[in-house]
Amino acid sequence: MQERAVRYRKRRKAVRRRRLLGVALVLSVAFGLTGLLPKPATDAVPKNRQRVLAVKEQQEQEADNLILVNGQNPIPEWYTVELLELENGEQVSRNIYGPLTEMLEAARGSNWNLLPQVVSGYRTQEMQQQIYEGKIQQFCQDGYTREEAEQLAGQWVALPGHSEHQLGLAVDINGATNGLYQWLQENSYRYGFIFRYPGNKTSQTGVAEEVWHYRYVGVEAATKMYQQGICLEEYVERYSGL
Ligand SMILES: [Zn+2]
């Protein structure tokens, strides 16, 4: 009796296995064996983690876009930048390459077909040091003492470590026409860039008007600054902590 019962169970198992195989076969054919069958649950963890990392990376990038660098605020020590090269050899952060080229193309369409050039993009600490030193030398040659020359140079050139160009998020644009600067002031926010040093904000920015200098902050922040007529210093003060 017992032996027969075991045999019976074995047979039932075999039948069930065959039935399961049959169902699997039908499913495989139905879904064309293209991987449409539900994936093992183990996949869910890394995928979810990827999504979390992607969101984190985006948030970090957005925070980087709003870093305030001026006379009082140096480049943060932890800051790093990934660079891409423009056609003329100038480099910019890879985060702004797309919107920058889009903006320059659009500007060209509105300004007699001249493609505006980025004459200065990313600068290293050494490059900024050289520019600053060069300015000091100019004033020394004009007869100023070293101390006076340093003070004067500081009014024209950002001190090394205090230039937005070291972020890779700022560019000096040469358009050969004033129409370009007018166009940029009215449209740059659509591409996430701001007219960083307007003449009426010198007391906040500490920099005299520079019509050629544009800074990337992202479309959302740039639009707010444009609509509210505020500079980055005011924006950071108004919205920090949000
Ligand atoms: Zn500049």
Shape: globular
Which class of secondary structure composition applies to the elements? alpha+beta
Query: How are the strands ordered across the major sheet?
Result: 3-4-6-5
In whole angstroms, how far apart are the ends?
78 Å
Continuous helix count: 9
> Any guess at the CATH architecture of one domain?
2-Layer Sandwich
CATH topology of one domain: Muramoyl-pentapeptide Carboxypeptidase, domain 2
Ions and ligands: zinc ion
Tell me, rounded to a whole number, the average pLDDT.
Answer: 85
The helix/strand order is HHEEHEHHEHEHEHH
Helix content: 40-55%
Low-confidence stretches: 20-35
Task: Name the beta content range.
Answer: 5-15%
How is this structure best summarized?
By secondary structure, the protein is of the alpha+beta class.
Question: What does this 3D model show about the protein?
Answer:
It is built from nine helices and six strands. The chain has 242 residues and is an alpha+beta fold. Among the domains are: 37 residues; 132 residues, Muramoyl-pentapeptide Carboxypeptidase, domain 2, CATH 3.30.1380. The protein has a four-stranded antiparallel sheet with strand order 3-4-6-5. Helix 4 packs across helix 5. The structure holds zinc ion (ZN). The site of zinc ion (ZN) has 5 residues, from strand 4.
